[in-house]
TrEMBL record:
<dbReference type="InterPro" id="IPR018378">
    <property type="entry name" value="C-type_lectin_CS"/>
</dbReference>
<dbReference type="InterPro" id="IPR050801">
    <property type="entry name" value="Ca-Dep_Lectins_ImmuneDev"/>
</dbReference>
<feature type="domain" description="C-type lectin">
    <location>
        <begin position="58"/>
        <end position="175"/>
    </location>
</feature>
<dbReference type="Pfam" id="PF00059">
    <property type="entry name" value="Lectin_C"/>
</dbReference>
<dbReference type="InterPro" id="IPR001304">
    <property type="entry name" value="C-type_lectin-like"/>
</dbReference>
<keyword id="KW-1015">Disulfide bond</keyword>
<dbReference type="InterPro" id="IPR016186">
    <property type="entry name" value="C-type_lectin-like/link_sf"/>
</dbReference>
<dbReference type="InterPro" id="IPR016187">
    <property type="entry name" value="CTDL_fold"/>
</dbReference>
<protein>
    <recommendedName>
        <fullName>C-type lectin domain-containing protein</fullName>
    </recommendedName>
</protein>
């Protein structure tokens, strides 16, 4: 779990397990050799809007925590920043967000079933949740409690994703798409 402010690229060496910021690596320089690192990625993360490059295991993303706002307000705010509510499609991404940003805060993520009950859609790409992604929900979730839960959140009191009432105000995580 490492945070790199204003870092646009990095090297990951699987032999040492070290992740090295490479802010000065650019297209005019040759790519790193396999001895230097076996993973290279370059993208833009807008630190002027409070975004940071965050990493957990093999998952890296450009993220920022804001709030509190309702789900719709949070979605609109992320879009105004050129971002989207975070997609948490893997356990690694879930842990990246939980350990680096949200901690004990309830937080919106970019997934809802507002258009069709039980058919959850990611804000990032409009894709329907896969069977594996449904496995990220807490036991007994999603449950559409009292017929009023259409937005997905991480609750500080439990492990896993929950469907939740979209009108509640809470923190939210925006994710900046990769831009080279």
């Amino acid at each position: 779990m490492t945070k790199y402010n204003n870092c646009t690229s990095f090297l990951f060496n699987s032999h040492s397990g070290l992740c090295t910021p490479g802010a000065y690596i650019n297209e005019k320089q040759p790519l790193p050799s396999s001895e230097e690192g076996d993973f290279f990625q370059s993208f833009y993360c807008d630190a002027s809007k409070n975004f940071s490059v965050l990493s957990y295991l093999k998952t890296t993303a450009c993220l920022a925590l804001f709030g509190p706002k309702t789900y719709m307000e949070a979605d609109a705010d992320c879009q105004s920043k050129g971002a989207y509510l975070i997609s948490v499609k893997t356990l690694e991404k879930y842990k990246l967000m939980l350990f680096n940003l949200t901690g004990v805060r309830n937080s919106w993520i970019g997934c809802d079933d507002k258009e069709s009950e039980g058919r959850f859609i990611w804000k990032e790409d409009g894709q329907v949740l896969t069977k594996e992604e449904y496995g990220l929900f807490a036991p007994g979730e999603p449950n559409n409690y009292r017929g009023a839960e259409d937005c997905v959140t991480i609750l500080n009191s439990a492990v896993g994703l929950f469907d939740y009432n979209c009108s509640y105000s809470q923190y939210y995580v925006c994710e900046m798409p990769y831009r080279v």
